[in-house]
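Dear H.,

Thanks for agreeing to be a second pair of eyes. The structure we're designing against is below in token form, covering all 214 positions.
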């Protein structure tokens, strides 16, 4: 059997990863979701229920990419799919630019137009979105997301499961602890310990002055 790619997830992040797989001409198996249904047109490909897929998938033939936006869910699924003996290719869109000494962890997806400069490390199951840029000596923790058009200057460190919002920018050398959520358009100029949301210019812990949305 020749290898085929299964994309896990049924939402927008899944579509984005499918677009990268298409651009690379990956032979597709189909999609995998919790209940076997997809929010989008699966393009004639099968959509399998996760529990069934985990029982039937063939290690070495069925390759898996976790394409769910929430880093915490990707972390959980990593364990479940790895326990079934499955492996995770890295997918890099042909228009992305990867310089020398760029290390990408298993299952990481780099989308169109992203630039990963040099001497930097991206962990496993990260999603580097369209037009994001990452400069020298950055370290991006496992399961992190870089949103579209976010820019990391040199030596920025993001802990595990960080979620960098669209168009956010990072001063050289800043460090964010695990699970930091950064609002769209923010300028991150200081270190933050993690497990918190920060937003604004400069980014500060998110405080609501209005009532939460229903
Ligand atoms: C930060 C974020 C997570 C907050 O979402 P939320 O919890 O639903 O918060 P709300 O929209 O209710 O906003 C709460 C307050 O924070 C402010 N706020 C929200 N996002 C902000 C941002 N990016 N920058 C500055 N302030 C922001 C709101 O104006 C509001 O202020 P107020 O209480 O004074 O009116 C969200 O706005 C955001 O920026 N997400 C990034 C999404 C993204 O880029 N994803 C990438 C997809 S590939």
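And this is the sequence the design step returned. I haven't edited it by hand at all.
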């Amino acid at each position: 059997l020749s290898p085929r790619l299964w994309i896990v997830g049924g939402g927008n992040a899944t579509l984005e990863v499918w677009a990268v797989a298409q651009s690379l001409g990956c032979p597709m198996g189909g999609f995998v979701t919790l209940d076997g249904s997809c929010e989008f047109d699966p393009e004639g490909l099968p959509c399998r229920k996760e529990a069934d897929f985990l029982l039937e998938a063939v290690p070495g033939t069925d390759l898996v990419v976790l394409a769910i936006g929430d880093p915490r869910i990707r972390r959980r699924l990593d364990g479940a799919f790895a326990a079934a003996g499955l492996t995770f290719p890295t997918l890099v869109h042909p228009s992305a630019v990867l310089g020398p000494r760029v290390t990408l962890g298993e299952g990481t997806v780099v989308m169109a137009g992203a630039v990963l400069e040099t001497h930097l490390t991206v962990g496993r199951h990260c999603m580097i979105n369209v037009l994001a840029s990452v400069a020298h000596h950055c370290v991006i923790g496992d399961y992190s997301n870089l949103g579209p058009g976010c820019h990391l200057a040199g030596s920025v460190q993001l802990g595990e499961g960080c979620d960098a919002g669209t168009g956010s920018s990072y001063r050289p050398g800043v460090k964010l602890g695990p699970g930091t959520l950064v609002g769209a358009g923010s300028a991150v100029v200081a270190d933050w310990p993690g497990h918190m949301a920060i937003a604004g210019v400069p980014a500060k812990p998110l405080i609501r002055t209005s009532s939460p949305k229903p």
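Two observations from my side: The CA atoms of residues 119 and 197 lie 28 Å apart. The chain is about 15% helix and 30% strand.

Warmly,
E.
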